[in-house]
Design a protein that fits this description.
- This protein has 523 residues and is an alpha+beta fold.
- Helix content is 47%, strand content 16%.
- A five-stranded antiparallel β-sheet has the order 2-1-5-4-3, with helices on both faces.
- It is found in: Cell membrane.
Length: 523
């Protein structure tokens, strides 16, 4: 193995190199090359250009097809007019033409006014006789075409692909008189001029489309700027909102998508504001609750003398304060764990059996008139230990707000007996009750009932927060019903989806604990 050469400096680690690179060249925020306004306008113009081009191509093809059909109809019309003279009378003498094809041809060509690009040729007895005057191109000098036309005995369509006048279509028809072919009539249509008209029309359409695109681009740029103005307002307002000032809101006008975005953004700000305020309150309350026992411990340690009795008394007091701190820290850790996926370990729980176990444990909490109320025979898919913890916390809470001899009753019943429905686990007491203004805040962390007698306002205010967290982890709720001076009833509500049908002990129902921040605590 070859040793690395020694140097005077240590090699820089990957983390250090990354930190140095980050310090020297701060990361820039990536911004798109084009704004939303230009991108939307570009897509709109692209679609408009494609649609316009497709329209021009389709219209040109339709016009060309119509031109071909019109040319074919014009050629058939010329042949039909020529055939009307065959077997007719000479308008000059009033006598029948008979078999005089030359007279028929002369009369027809004399009376015929050819359209632009049209040529009629008449062949008599295999030789060229006469054609319309001033043709775009005279094909009578082409021996191949002459042989083909003069040899026809049936009507035939054809095309001249290349000529000085452009391409042309022709229709050649034999002239039959008295059962014999006496000659041929050939009608040619040169469509170059008509196609040129179509091309001119298409060019005008293209220019019109380009003008429309330019107008749409200018108008669309202004219209999109006006439409996106509320979005810019949202962005500017969002930039002015700081982490420590979440009270600002975006003014909402209209009912379009941008208004929905503004409503959603305002709602998000409201949730962030509440979460930030709750976080600040939580940090303040937790600091206050933990600072008090620390101050007590430090004060007694500083004043502790050498007297054994005094030292023993001080140690006992310090131990009690440390135990209280330990309970508070454990409660906080439990609330933090309530947001983790593995907070629950669900299993089949027989509700009546669990309530008997909770009753046996709760009677040791205080000298009260403990009772077991209605216990429906049902089973749920839940975490038995967490449910027991929540019920014991409610029982402890009831002991704290009752006197010796007051009644505390535990009960469990199905909302719809005999059918799948919610299960209600209740703890009822006949204590001091809760004022209406306290019922909404007692489930907040470190919150206590402000109107309760001072002797009852003990603890850190985390008990009911734990109960609420356990209920939410089971996708349930916790509710309170109280009459001041007459007692309270706390109900842990398990959803219908957690209820197991009789005999389905092996079915694992999906209980997925997922919590947001818990918002419960003691009265």
């Amino acid at each position: 193995m070859t040793a690395a050469p020694a140097t005077g400096t240590m090699p820089m680690t990957t983390t250090e190199a990354t930190r140095e690179t980050t310090t020297e060249s701060p990361v820039r925020r990536w911004r798109p090359a084009l704004g939303l306004r230009l991108r939307l306008l570009g897509w709109a113009l692209a679609l408009l250009a494609i649609a316009s081009l497709a329209s021009v191509v389709v219209i040109r093809q339709v016009l060309l097809n119509q031109l071909e059909n019109r040319i074919a109809a014009d050629m058939r019309q010329e042949v039909t007019e020529f055939r009307r003279l065959v077997g007719g009378r000479d308008p000059a003498s009033g006598q029948p033409f008979g078999t005089d094809l030359r007279a028929i041809a002369d009369t027809y060509l004399l009376r015929n006014e050819p359209q632009a690009g049209e040529l009629v040729l008449v062949f008599v007895d295999g030789t060229f006789h006469r054609a319309t005057a001033n043709p775009p191109y005279d094909p009578s000098g082409d021996p191949d075409l002459l042989r083909r036309w003069t040899g026809l005995t049936d009507s035939t369509y054809g095309r001249i692909a290349d000529s000085p006048a452009g391409s042309a279509r022709w229709l050649a028809v034999p002239v039959v008189i008295d059962g014999a072919v006496r000659g041929q009539v050939v009608v040619l249509e040169f469509g170059a001029e008509r196609r040129a008209e179509i091309d001119r029309a298409v060019r005008l359409m293209t220019l019109a489309c380009l003008l429309v695109i330019v107008v749409v681009a200018a108008g669309g740029y202004l219209a999109m700027g006006r439409a996106l103005r509320p979005l810019r307002t949202v962005t500017e307002t969002a930039r002015t909102i700081e982490e420590t000032d979440l009270s600002r809101r975006i003014a909402v006008t209209g009912t379009d998508e941008v208004a929905d975005l503004a409503h959603t953004f305002n709602g998000m700000l409201g949730r962030l504001h509440r979460a930030f305020a709750a976080q600040q309150a939580f940090v303040s309350d937790a600091g206050h609750e933990l600072r008090t026992p620390i101050t007590i411990v430090r004060g007694h340690l500083e004043l502790m003398g050498d007297d054994p009795d005094e030292r023993a008394e001080t140690v006992a007091l310090i131990t009690d304060e440390l135990d209280r701190m330990n309970r508070m820290v454990n409660d906080l850790l439990m609330l933090a764990r309530a947001e983790q996926p593995d907070f629950l370990h669900p299993e089949r729980v027989e509700v009546a059996m669990m309530m008997h176990d909770v009753y046996a444990k709760a009677v040791a909490l205080g000298d009260r008139d403990w009772r077991l109320g209605d216990l429906d025979d049902t089973a749920v898919w839940a975490d038995r230990q967490r449910l027991t913890q929540a019920l014991m916390q409610l029982a402890q809470n009831a002991v704290q707000f009752t006197e010796v001899g007051d009644t505390i009753e535990l009960s469990a019943r199905s909302e719809t007996p005999g059918q799948p429905g919610r299960v209600l686990l209740a703890v009822r007491d006949t204590g001091v009750g809760i004022e209406p203004e306290d019922r909404e805040r007692i489930f907040a962390r470190f919150a206590r009932a402000e109107h309760a007698p001072r002797r009852h306002a003990e603890g850190a205010g985390l008990g009911l927060a734990i109960v609420a967290a356990i209920a939410e982890a089971h996708r349930g709720t916790v509710a309170v019903d109280s009459v001041p001076g007459a007692g309270s009833t706390f109900t842990l509500v398990l959803p219908a989806g957690a209820v197991l049908a009789p005999g389905l002990s092996d079915i694992l129902l999906p209980v997925r604990p997922h919590l947001g921040p818990a918002d419960g605590a003691d009265r």
